[in-house]
Structures are given as C-alpha cells and as structure tokens.
Amino acid sequence: MDAGGGQEIEQLIRLLGRLPGFGPRSARRVALYLLKEPQTRLVPLARALEKAGDAIRTCSSCGNLDTLDPCHICRDPLREHAVVCVVETVGDLWALERAGVHRGVYQVLGGTLSPLSGTGPEDLNVAPLFARLEAGQVREVILALGATVEGATTMHWLMDRLVAYGGVTVSRVAQGVPMGGALDVLDDGTLAAALGARRPA
Amino acid sequence: MDAGGGQEIEQLIRLLGRLPGFGPRSARRVALYLLKEPQTRLVPLARALEKAGDAIRTCSSCGNLDTLDPCHICRDPLREHAVVCVVETVGDLWALERAGVHRGVYQVLGGTLSPLSGTGPEDLNVAPLFARLEAGQVREVILALGATVEGATTMHWLMDRLVAYGGVTVSRVAQGVPMGGALDVLDDGTLAAALGARRPA
C-alpha cells in the first residue's frame, strides 16, 4: 500500500502523478495538501475542474480553448480579423495574449509537421485559415512557430501553400526566439520583440 | 485576461496555482493539459477528487488520513499496538509506511511546537496517545520528529511528559548521514550528530 490507505486516495495520487511536471512525490504532496482541508481546498478544485470541463469548447474558427465557440477573440469586433497569427498550441496563443502584442486573430495548428511522430498536414488545424484566405478575408499571415526543426518544417510547408494568395503579406516572427525554445515559456519582452521585428517570409 | 477566455478556466488556473510547488506557469500548463482532452484527463481527475473528498476521514485514534476511522493501521490486528511511533504529519506516516520499517502504530501530532507560529501543546494531537498510556496499552514510544528546532522542541516537551510513565521505553530516531548521501554536502549539524553518535564498526 502506497498512500497509507484507501483506494480513493491511491487513485487520486495516481491521477495527479500523470500531470505534466508531476512525479509520485509531488503527487502525494498535493494529495495530502488537498485532503488535509477538503472543504477549503479539495472541494473547490473538484468543482472548478467540473465547471471548466463542462464549459470548455474548442473554437471552430481558430482552435483556441474557450468557454465560447467562436472564442472571445474570434468574436471580438475590435480585433483585426484580417491579420492572422499562426501558432502551434493554445499555450502559445495564451502566451501572446498575456504579452498583449497581437491585435489580430489566431490560427492554432494543434501541432507541427513531424515525420517522426507521424504528424502530417492532414493533422494540422489549417482548414479554417485557408477558408478565410479563399474568401479574401485575410490581409496578413504572421507565422509564430517555435524555432525547432518541426516548427521550421511546418513554416516552410505553410509558406509554400500561402504563395498562392498573392495579395496576402506573409511574415514570420523574428529570430530572437531561442533555438530549441517553445513560445509559451518566453518572457513578454522577447515575444514583443520577436513579433515587432517580423519580416516578409 | 490571463488564460485567454472564460471565467471557469481562469478560476481553475487560480486554484491550481495555489497547490504546493505550483506557480502561475505550471498552473496554466496543467490546466491546458487537462482541458485539451477533458474526457480522458479532466473528468477522471475531477471524479477522483470528489470520491477522495467524500471518502476521507481523519483517524480519531492516530490522526492518519484514511477512508476508514479508525484507519487501516489502527484496526490491523497484526500490528504491534503497544509500540507507538510519533510523527509530525500524515506525510511522515506515509513515508514510514512506504519504507515498511515500522510494525507498530502511529500518533500524528499534526504539527510541532512553535512559539513563532503560535502552535502550543493544546494544538497537537496528543490526547489519544496519553489516553493509551494511561490505560497501560503502550510499551514503547518512538519519537520520529524532524531534525528541526521545532521538532527538537516538541521532542523535549514530549519526553518531559513521558517520564511520568515509568514502564514505557522512549526512543528517538537516530540522526546521521542519510543512505547514499555524501558527507561533503551535509550541513555541520548533521555531521556533528553523525560523528557524535558513532558506534563500533
């Protein structure tokens, strides 16, 4: 017996141990923290999880996770809907939003092209972007992909497809994103600089 | 807006950010991980939290957190109920159980004496131990408290009270070099204790 008693406690520790950044030790620590004062710690968290799980939607337009579909960004009339920033993950979108450096909308690919992990173009969430491009609703596409091999591969694939749309400016975030770095761990200043110094692709 | 949308998501991130070892960044990472696949990640965790919260009891005998009261240790007839190991927290109890080094029962104090944080003897869960001592049910008390100022203060206070029970053996866990530990990373206090408690090889 690992946790000292109770199938329910062991199951909780097992699930906590699967969270990113968690090991058995941190899972036990968090479980103990929660179980020590269930009413003020465990119950509110369980309730918040349930509410978020019920409310969560994937935006059918951009791929963002939100409680609305279309998400609050896609339905915001004050944003520049003709400027689309392409990111890999929702975490990247959140990072750019926290930095407040992009006034347009987004397209969340949900991944990158990767022959190794078997991710092909058909796995990327790009259809809504090309639909908007076809409809002539896009003036500029900003490629904000990570400076990784997969990010670069994905960017080149996208650029190849974007040349078909003559009137559309395609730019990429400036190098300044550290090699091998993911966007969502960068500080706001770096994100702002990278976006501000974007150049024609 | 921090999370990119939805009061429910923000509330979840806020609560996750309060967990021990969490900051805003890890809270967002875990929230994203859970929200990305709600059915296989978020819902099972919410359910496990709810179940554990419903099932959890504080053992009225030793202070352990379990789904039973008395806990599975206190009701185990194969354990030596006359040997009581005194620990500070349920986490300490779980650690000793994982190590499988104690065949008796426990008394979880739930804290240590600390004038700074205002924890006095009346805040410690010691009444069940003294009730058992009064009833003559205890042969040995093992003090397994942390090697901190508060742990030492608590231990001395307990030893003062335990001398009243003449027939009871009182011992304390040894201080020294941890298994696998190198000497040059240990603090002076540990080295002094380890050297002072040296025994014939």
TrEMBL record, chains A, B:
Pfam families: RecR_C, RecR_HhH, RecR_ZnF, Toprim_4. PROSITE patterns: TOPRIM. The keyword Transmembrane does not apply. Residues 82-178 form the Toprim domain. One of its GO terms (molecular function) is DNA binding. Keywords: DNA damage, DNA recombination, DNA repair, Metal-binding, Zinc, Zinc-finger. It comes from the Bacteria. InterPro entries: DNA_Rcmb_RecR, Rcmb_RecR, Rcmb_RecR_Znf, TOPRIM_dom, TOPRIM_RecR. GO terms for biological process: DNA recombination; DNA repair. A zinc finger (C4-type) spans 59-74. May play a role in DNA repair. It seems to be involved in an RecBC-independent recombinational process of DNA repair. It may act with RecF and RecO. NCBIfam families: recR. HAMAP family: RecR. Belongs to the RecR family. This is Recombination protein RecR.
